[in-house]
Amino acid sequence: MIDVAKILADLKEEKEQLEQAILTLERLAAGRAPRRGRPPAWMSSESSPKRRGRPPGSKNKPAAEEASDEGAAVA
User: Fold this and answer.
1) 43 near 31, Cβ under 8 Å?
2) How many Cα atoms are found within 13 Å in the side-chain-facing hemisphere of 54?
3) What is the 3-state secondary structure (H, E, C) of 20-71?
4) pTM for the full predicted model
């Protein structure tokens, strides 16, 4: 026998999933245009930790390191 209530509940659940997918795709499509400034909070990913300090391979040295290098070169 066909359980109409179960089928109806499944269809409503699938409808919610489709609406969420459509909303996500609309947001992604809106974000494709080049924009200025900080991206909206919903676009920024919290999964990547914020990196602090000088990037690897940077040519500039802090003033404390330069002073110790100069002292070693003079001696």
Assistant:
1) yes
2) 7
3) HHHHHHHHHHHCCCCCCCCCCCCCCCCCCCCCCCCCCCCCCCCHHHHHHHHH
4) 0.40
Please tell me the distance from the alpha carbon of residue 39 to that of residue 60, in angstroms, as a whole number: 29
pLDDT digits 0-9 by tens, 2-53: 899 999 999 999 999 999 999 988 888 877 767 678 877 776 666 566 677 7
Placement of tokens 């245009």 in the chain: 33
Please report, for the chain, the start and end positions of each structural domain, with discontinuous segments joined by +. Answer: 1-31
The whole-angstrom separation of Cα 53 and Cα 56 is 9
Long-range CB contacts for residues 58-63, cutoff 8 Å, separation at least 24: none
**Residue 28 identity:** L
